[in-house]
Amino acid sequence: MRKNNVWKQALALVLSATLVLGNVSPVSAATGDAGTEEGAGNQEVVTSADALLLTADGEIVSSGDGYEEAGILFQKVGVDIVDAPNITPGEGNEPGDDGGHGKVFRFSNEGDDYTKTGEDYLTSVEGSLRKYDFSKGVTLSFDIYPEEQCTDWNYLFVIGMLGEVKNTVTGTIGFVSAFDSQKQKEDQIAAGVDEPGSWTAYFPGGNWIEANKGDLEWDYFKAGSLNLDQHIHKWYSMEYIYTQEGLTIAVNGLPVLSYRETNGYISDVLSQMNKGQLRLGKGVLTNLEGYVGLMDNFKVQPVAQHQHTYVSGDDGRRVDPTCTKPGYVRKGQCTGCGVIVEEIIDPLGHEYGELKAATDATCTKAGYDAHFVCERTGCGQWAVADETAEGGKREVQSDEIKTDKLGHDPEIAITKATTEKDGAIVETCKREGCTSDPKTTVIPKASDITLAGTEFTYTGKEIKPAVTVKDSEGATISADNYDVSYSNHVNVGTATVTIKFKGDNYEGTATRTFRINAAAVSANLALGKTSVTLYTGSAKKSETIKVTAIAGASQTVTWKSDNEKIAKVDSKGKITAVKAGTTNVRATANGITKVVKVTVKNPTITLKSGKKKFTKKTVNVKRKKKTTLTVSVNPSKSGFKLGKMTSKQKKIAKVTLSKKGKLVIQGKKKGSFKIKITSGKATKTLTIKVK
């Protein structure tokens, strides 16, 4: 294995994803008991310095589907085994054209693009870690050679368990990192966090990292602001030392970061690690972004039981405790396991002042029950007296002992605005003891009243221009605040608009005027019909033609028929049929003449014998017998009548015609004669023959 220059991005990505930890602080000094129940008395269980070393010099088996190293078979998915790159001596901080690595693993993602997801990892077969005892801790070390610039490399180089624990991230049974987020998320829920976050939120960052970055002059978690060109295409050695006390990270042999275990996460998982499988590469989820580059010399080594010994004493690094959180003083680095050890400073506990008396809620301020407040700088925790609680005080949130403010009980007085003066709404709280000043809201006067127009042309109809009312600040006042009425707004002259204000905010009346001017007259004449059909009978014998439009100096229309023998017309446009034929009736006004075509028709007389049409000209009747025919005319209201008969004709036959058109012929003696049936100018002649 090699010790090379520090690459800060590699440290960030491996720290943020290799083995998931809680939000913990520097490691405390402790020792462990020898062995575990599983390892005790079992010579096959490795508890000391023996290590699993993985290089890329193993054998590819099963036609490339697997990889065997140190007697352990790996399932190979998307990981290539390639020659180490040629480098100029000195650039990798080691002589040699490949840095002395020979064959190496290559993790590339899909298409060598770190923004895409892939499946670049190695996973050992089930049970491959059972001979190792990780209960006291584990040291992970490896060399990396980044090939791409990336500010978000996550979830790499993981020891974990397959099928052993429910994965909090995915909610399914699957691969879980060595330091799982299950307990972290449970702690969040127990603490009342509304939306428990993913395990990535537990990594230290921001000011904590800035204050604990050690001898390296860069922020491990903020590589995006760096020139990454200087950090790629070089070999770096990474070392992670996990014990039940916490974690120490070293780059090229230099300890650069440590934080301690406070919640039991590491201890819980270390006790189960030998039941799991080893995965190198992607980590918890196979569809996440990952490392683009080379890796070699991955070593997994259990930490044996030992007493910590220090390389150096206190280096002065200190985090002060708070009321509820412990602090620490760095003591030094253990020569046995490499972990950096800190002495823990217990939390200070709250320092409550005098009991603050209960306060009643007012209109504008909430009230609170009697309570204590911690007076330590930066704390401010509240508590109430409680004999059952430790120290006689029980911590509370302010909302738990809060009485909501009452709010004002308003009394409102309104002075209405007019067109000349502003109005006002004055709101005063009626609640006893309220010292708030009255709230006054000005109602701006209705000072700007305009019409949609002030000059209009006479149309003979009502003219109502729209009204707009604005206040003195230019805001439009809603029409709900006034009624509008109009007078003298039809004929030529001056019309008046009256605006009467109403409602809660306005009062008074205002008027505006506009002019209606005479329209320029142009001659025009229009008739309701241009043609009409009349009949000589009683039905539709006449019709009056209406004048629908007339304009000009004269409003008088003169009427004339071209042929009064066909149709006549009077001065009011009434046309009367005279006889069948066609003619024109002319209407004239202001030099304009309009023509009405008149068609006069005679009614049509139809005879029927029963239901059949009777078209014969002679009606044969026997003596002392009757023959009946039906007479009808079209139009039906044209009327009909029977011509006058002589006494001689009456001796031959009796002929009658009822109003309903029943024609009855009763023979008396032999003979014949003619009768006429008329309707208007229409005549139907029949010969009556009695046999």
How would you describe the overall organization of this protein?
The chain is mainly β. Residues 1-43, 92-96, 111-118, 151-184, 196-228 and 282-289 have low confidence and may be disordered.
- Secondary-structure content class: mainly beta
Radius of gyration: 57 Å
- Describe the main β-sheet briefly: 8 strands, antiparallel
Query: Termini separation (Å)?
Result: 151 Å
Q: How many strands?
A: 50
Low-confidence stretches: 1-43, 92-96, 111-118, 151-184, 196-228, 282-289
| Beta strand % | 35-45%
Put the structure in a nutshell.
This protein is mostly beta strands and 691 residues long. The protein is built from five helices and 50 strands.
Provide keyphrases for this structure.
691 residues, 38% strand, disordered N terminus, 5 helices, mainly beta, 7-stranded antiparallel β-sheet
What is the element layout, followed by pairings?
Blueprint: H1 8-17, E1 52-54, E2 59-61, E3 66-69, E4 72-77, E5 79-83, E6 103-107, E7 121-124, E8 137-146, E9 158-161, E10 176-177, H2 182-190, H3 207-211, E11 236-243, E12 246-251, E13 254-260, H4 265-270, E14 277-281, E15 293-302, E16 318-319, E17 327-333, E18 340-345, E19 367-368, E20 372-373, E21 382-385, E22 393-396, E23 402-403, E24 410-415, E25 423-429, E26 439-443, E27 448-451, E28 455-457, E29 467-470, E30 482-487, E31 493-501, E32 509-517, E33 524-527, E34 531-535, E35 542-544, E36 547-551, E37 558-561, E38 567-569, E39 574-577, E40 581-589, E41 592-601, E42 604-609, E43 612-613, E44 618-621, E45 626-634, E46 641-642, H5 647-652, E47 653-657, E48 662-667, E49 671-679, E50 682-690
Parallel strand pairs: 28-32, 34-41, 44-50
Antiparallel strand pairs: 1-15, 2-3, 3-4, 4-7, 5-6, 6-15, 7-14, 8-11, 8-15, 9-10, 9-14, 11-12, 12-13, 16-17, 17-18, 19-23, 20-21, 21-22, 24-25, 25-26, 27-29, 30-31, 31-32, 33-36, 35-39, 37-40, 38-39, 40-41, 42-43, 42-45, 45-48, 46-49, 47-48, 49-50
